[in-house]
Design brief:
Distance between the termini: 41 Å
Helix content: 40-55%
CATH class of the largest domain: Alpha Beta
CATH architecture of the largest domain: 2-Layer Sandwich
Strand content: 15-25%
CATH topology of the largest domain: Beta Polymerase, domain 2
Oligomer: single chain
Structural class: alpha+beta
Number of helices: 9
Order of helices and strands: HEHEHEEEEEHEEHHHHH
Number of domains: 2
């Protein structure tokens, strides 16, 4: 599916990256047994677009391949070979000043995309079956999940995903932590049972701060989100955000 999509995006000179549960699973699959504990039913793709007209042109090219079908009511949804649901999430110049993407066909559809531009600045390229695919960095995934949770507090799966990422982060990126953030390892008591989680959360917070370097209002929003959940790891993330 990704190979088929890449051909269309390349045809239109459009960049994209994988977000959501699939991006999470790609990162977590690097460690046997640490993959996510719940399956996903769809694929989320953040697409960098200049205009609403460009969105329709790209979507039409997808449908013209014969392997994709349109959702009957939701303009951002398509189906691949009648089995995989794909959400197309347009961001970039197509957004308005409120970080909203507004589509007018077949009816008005408003999509909130705060954080997508920021996460795009640190995407990683991963070889998937011989195809280089852009994937949201793990810290960008945490950023987007914090925003999603703030938008819909009933989405407890975002909290569980963030906590799971914190729990396995050090095992995924221990070398990078040693090389780039060794000072964080000296900020917490090694006798703490959740020592590595605290270190990981602090590093994630710092990485998110870098993503938000040119987005002070969004950084303030993330700070408020973290402040409202007074548990050790989230407060360590907050400390990293403010370092």
């Amino acid at each position: 599916m990704l190979k088929d999509l890449e051909k269309v995006f390349k045809q239109h000179d459009v960049d994209f990256y994988i977000v959501g549960a699939v991006a999470r699973d790609i990162h977590l699959s690097a460690i046997p047994g640490k993959a996510a504990f719940r399956a996903t039913k769809d694929v989320d793709l953040a697409i960098l677009l200049a205009s609403e007209e460009q969105f329709y042109a790209v979507k039409q090219s997808m449908l013209a391949t014969g392997t994709f079908e349109a959702h009957p009511t939701e303009p951002i949804k398509i189906f691949y070979k009648k089995s995989i649901e794909v959400d197309l999430l347009p961001f970039g110049a197509i957004e308005n000043n409120s970080s909203e993407t507004i589509l007018n066909k077949p009816k008005v559809f408003v999509l909130d995309v705060p954080g997508f531009q920021e996460a795009y600045s640190s995407i990683t390229t991963i070889d998937i079956d011989g195809t280089n695919i852009n994937v949201c960095a793990i810290e960008g995934i945490v950023l987007l999940k914090l925003i999603a949770f703030d938008d819909r507090p009933s989405r407890t799966k975002d909290i569980s995903d963030i906590d799971h990422i914190i729990m396995v982060y050090f095992e995924l990126y221990d070398t990078a932590v040693f090389n780039d953030s060794f000072d964080v390892m000296e900020l917490y008591d090694t006798n703490e049972s959740n020592y590595l989680s605290l270190v990981s959360a602090r590093v994630i917070g710092r990485k998110m701060s870098n993503l938000l370097l040119h987005s002070p209002s969004l950084k303030n929003r993330v700070e408020g989100i973290l402040t409202k959940r007074p548990i050790d790891t989230w407060q360590a993330m907050l400390s990293g955000l403010l370092d």
